[in-house]
Amino acid sequence: MTRKRLSRDDSREQTTQRLLDAAQKLIAKKGLEAASVENIAAAAGYTRGAFYSNFSSKDDLFIELLRRDHQKATAQLKTLRDSSLPVERLQSGAQVISAKELTKTVKTPRQECHDEQVTHTKPVKDKDRLVGTGVGAVVGGLLGSRIGGGNTRIVTGLAGAAAGGYAGNKIQQKVQQGDTYTTTEQRCVTVYDSHEESRGYEVEYMLDGKRHHVRMDHDPGKEIPVRDGQIVIDAQKHGSES
């Protein structure tokens, strides 16, 4: 099958489109500055001379590339408008003005324990300290009875018994209080760990020239999708609207 020979204009148009396609890929990959004329021509399969036969400079090629993309976008938009696609496909999203995160503080209780040395007094068998009182009274009475004579010895004996009983009682009390033992006991207190939990977002957005508010369970970003004049969100919770 004989291949149809391209006309001069068709050949020139084919070269132009190949150069544009190659430039678009290189610019997207490397950036406009890094994409040189030589690289663009080589990627399209042409020489530097072929490049300058179609474009006066790299800037001229870039302008033509923008014009071609604009023409494609315009053609696609016209196709959408003329097709039977739903009008909702042509609606732009609602612009988000602000999205404030709502949080609550959650407190979790836990026990914090430590060991503590506790000193105890041993149980007292002679609570009334009768032994100390009795011994003190006997000793005091004997000492008192040695002083004076006759009735005087009786009086001093009784006084000595009373003083000795009191002293013996106090001595036994001191001994009992010093009779202690130590144990290790666990002491616990309740403390609370706090952390913040998200309760969603209070979102202010613009739709049809009016400001609205809505509660959402996630950050919507810059836009909220719109269908049939209404925003589309998951788990929607409406707040006040103005």
Describe the structure.
The chain is α+β, with helices and mostly antiparallel strands. The chain has three domains: 8-85, Tetracycline Repressor, domain 2 (Orthogonal Bundle); 91-105 and 198-238; 123-178, no CATH class. It is 44% helix and 29% strand. It has six helices and seven strands. The chain has helices at 8-30, 37-44, 48-54, 58-82, 130-145, 151-177, and strands at residues 94-121, 180-207, 210-216, 223-224, 226-227, 230-231, 237-238. The strands form two sheets. A five-stranded antiparallel sheet has the order 4-1-2-3-7, with no helix packed on it. Helix 1 crosses helix 2, helix 1 (8-30) crosses helix 4 and helix 5 runs antiparallel to helix 6. The chain is elongated.
Features:
alpha+beta, 7 strands, 5-stranded antiparallel β-sheet, 44% helix, Tetracycline Repressor, domain 2, 6 helices, two-stranded antiparallel sheet, disordered C terminus, 242 residues
With strands numbered from the N-terminus, the spatial order across the biggest sheet is: 4-1-2-3-7
What is the overall shape? Answer: elongated
Global structural class: alpha+beta
Enter the CATH topology name of the largest domain: Tetracycline Repressor, domain 2
CATH top level class name of the largest domain: Mainly Alpha
Count, helices: 6
What percentage of residues falls in helices of 4 or more residues? 40-55%
Second-tier CATH architecture of the largest domain: Orthogonal Bundle
Distance between the termini: 72 Å
